[in-house]
Design brief:
The protein is an all-alpha fold and 142 residues long. It is built from eight helices and no strands. Helix content is 75%, strand content 0%. Helix 2 (20-32) packs antiparallel against helix 3 (36-55) and helix 2 (20-32) packs parallel to helix 4. It comes from Nannocystis bainbridge.
C-alpha cells in the first residue's frame, strides 16, 4: 500500500512537482508485490501516457519521455529498447532536453539502435541547448 500511495502522491503533486516516472516505478513495485490497485494504476498511467504521446497536446513531449522510460525498463509494458529510442527521439523533437539526453545515451551505447557517436553528440548538443545539465556535461566531456 505504501508504494501505491507514494506513487499517487507523485502523480497528483503532493510530492515536490509531478513526476510520472517515479509514479510508474512505484506502481510497478506495488504490482510486483501483488497489490492489484498498483497494477491498475500502472496500467492506467501507461495508457494515459501512450494516448497523449500518440495524439499530441500539452506536454506531449514529456509524456513520450516518461513512456520511453517505462518501455526501456519494461515497467507496465513490454521491454522494447528500439521503441524507447523512438519515444526519446519524439520527446527530443518536442523540445524535452531529457529526451535528447536519453536518446544520446542510447545512441552512444548502441542500445535500441546501432552505436552512433556522431548522432549521440548531436543529441547531447540539442539537450544542452534545452538547458539539460547532464547533456551539457556529456558535451563538455567530448
Amino acid at each position: 500500500m505504501g508504494c501505491l500511495n507514494l506513487g499517487r502522491s507523485w502523480l497528483d503533486g503532493r510530492q515536490p512537482g509531478v513526476n510520472e516516472a517515479n509514479a510508474i516505478e512505484l506502481f510497478y513495485k506495488a504490482c510486483v508485490l501483488a497489490d492489484e490497485d498498483g497494477c491498475d494504476e500502472l496500467s492506467r498511467t501507461v495508457v494515459r501516457l501512450r494516448d497523449v504521446c500518440d495524439k499530441g497536446g500539452p506536454n506531449f513531449g514529456s509524456r513520450c519521455l516518461n513512456l520511453g522510460w517505462a518501455v526501456e525498463r519494461g515497467l507496465g509494458v513490454e521491454h522494447d529498447v528500439e521503441r524507447a529510442v523512438a519515444l526519446y527521439k519524439k520527446a527530443c523533437g518536442a523540445g524535452v532536453g531529457q529526451g535528447c539526453f536519453n536518446l544520446g545515451v542510447m545512441q552512444a551505447e548502441g542500445r535500441g539502435t546501432g552505436r552512433d557517436d556522431k548522432a549521440a553528440k548531436v543529441s547531447f548538443h540539442k539537450g544542452c541547448k534545452l538547458d539539460h545539465a547532464p547533456a551539457c556535461a556529456r558535451v563538455e566531456r567530448g
